[in-house]
Amino acid sequence: MKRICFYTSDYGYGHAARDIAVINGILSRGKAEIFVRTDTAFDMMRRSLPGAKVLRLRNDIGVSYQGNSARADVEKTEAALLAWMDSWDDYLKKEEVFCREHEIDLILSDIVPQPFLVAKDLELPSMGISNFTWHYIWVNMRMRYGLTDDDVLIYLGLGRSLDPDFLLGLKEVELPDAKSLDVKFLVSSSLDLPLKNMLKIPPQETESQNYIAMCDLVVSKTGYSTASEAIRARVPMLLFTRNGYEEDKLVASGVGSLGVGREISEEEFLSWGWIEYLDDPEDLRAGFASLPQRFSGDGLSEALDAIEAVLA
Fold this sequence. Notes:
Blueprint: E1 2-8, H1 14-29, E2 32-38, H2 42-48, E3 53-56, H3 74-86, H4 88-101, E4 106-110, H5 114-122, E5 126-128, E6 151-157, E7 182-187, E8 198-200, H6 209-213, E9 217-221, H7 224-233, E10 237-240, H8 246-258, E11 261-264, H9 266-271, H10 299-311
Parallel strand pairs: 1-2, 1-4, 2-3, 4-5, 6-7, 6-9, 7-8, 9-10, 10-11
Helix pairs in contact: 1-10, 4-5
């Protein structure tokens, strides 16, 4: 049986979330043994991947922020990046030993750069795993939480890469009375917000995409995994972009051009200025009826077929 070493980025949990889907898919086909190297999402991946050997390894760094905001501190981030790159020589030596000792046949990375150097030195094939949509089909979880068709469930997503102090700027919410909406909010288990009718994703839950799928609206920082999960589940989005993040602009503009959501500012998010969109939520759903094929297909199957082609 072939052996694969899978390196998962330590920046946030979006990489780990999609890698779990890929790894479980590989394991289900019974053609490879999987070793996983990660740190930030170590506990999450170990719980989610009982059939893989999940081993702790720090692969990369995150972004430093300016005080209690979602703005990147470019100077601090650059300093941390340079210090991290200075450690690459030790990293490469240790991982070359690891891959030799475990007789690795293929290196996959999402999307940590240095494992590709390990693969080059060992003359091993390597592949990069990047963003794609979820393959999971949503089961009706709303009934479990006692939600009716009249309830409006909004997912507030900040991810785990933002400083929690960012929420100190969150104002008290005032919901529109025009439609007498019964609004409830879904948040991650780690968030404590001054909201009524708040539901939390259980702390041990590893399939968070199913919770997003039961929502009527996603209001979140811009993230590819969140956007892809929402598109897959046909949930419209309001995404706030972070200053200094070119990928935020790319994803948010893509969501807008597809007609499945809109971009909002950090200020609109904190002040609840976006709440006006609840008056006409169907306007945000218009694009789902005419999504291009690439956004309605199964990215997981494509990724698995590409991996098997390299292993063959």
